[in-house]
Design brief:
Elements: H1 39-65
Amino acid sequence: MRAATTVPARLPMTSPALPPRPEAPLPSDCCGSGCSPCIFELHEQELQRWWEEVAAIRQAAAERSTPPPSST
């Protein structure tokens, strides 16, 4: 018998499409010469922009799925 699949309560049944997470550089990707900015710093900046974009997408999806207040 197949186990029932559960969906986390905090996510809507149809989650918005999210952009792929930036891929982390490998330790061997760094040249070790003290570049400014370093490839790891660039990745952190990319990751921060990605998190901001994801938050905006999720906020917009939440706003679309929230019914308007009733006028009673």
